[in-house]
Amino acid sequence: MEWADRPRSGPLDVVVTGLPSDAHTWNLVFIQLLLEDLGHKVVNLGPCVPQDEIVESCCKFEPDLLVVSSVNGHGFNDARPLIEAVRSRWELAGLPAVIGGKLGVGGGEREQAGELMRAGFDAVFQDGTGDEPGFAAFTSFVGSLAVTR
What is the Cα–Cα distance from 17 to 105, expressed in whole angstroms? Predict the structure, then answer.
């Protein structure tokens, strides 16, 4: 069975979540408000969400985008198994998934971003890379998904 891409135009349905090891909520609320201000519909799963719950929520809500955020500096450790679990489900194989925030504490941000992209994330928006400001790049990415494919 193949999963057909839905043509998109306008608002996206987005699942926003924290990772199992990250208890921070302010970043998730900020992202939710940002996305809602852009006209998108958001389900915010909150902080400390178990990997299986994230995967099952994506299957249940059938979002157009999964946004993962971490600020505790340990997100990189939880992110790879999460995206591998997401990509292992046929119904989520084509789901655009992004991650952002402070994902590590010891440097190597570019290497971590590359590894997460190879593991299956579509984009990594991370502190400390010196690239385009994270929110500008993030909103640009979201905007590119919202136009008709």
Answer: 20
